[in-house]
Amino acid sequence: MSSERPHGRRQCADLLLNFVTCHDGFTLNDLVSYNDKHNEANGEENRDGLDSNLSWNCGVEGSSDEPAIVGLRHRQMKKIFVILLLSVGTPMLQMGDEICRTQGATTTPTARIMGWGGSTGVC
Fold this sequence. Notes:
Layout: E1 17-18, H1 28-31, H2 67-86, E2 90-91, H3 109-113
Parallel strand pairs: 1-2
């Protein structure tokens, strides 16, 4: 089997990098727990950071103790992991996503470094 496409381009699946979350946005837990960013604590009046997180809070903004919401969020995270791991290319996972780390919807790394919100939790 040839590695050349009909148009002369090589198939380079090993050069593809797939990711859902990264260091300057929501964590995976935040992606299924918040609809909007919450960067209020750093004094920028929530103007900093990206507004386009494409997230869904599963019906409750932020953390929840309701079993139905927690179960739905865990299923959503598992589905995202499976899709990411089965996609062609190299998956990039953000450290802590496997244990439901949260930044409390803070999308700016500076806010986390300075201790303005967010926490680490275990699902």
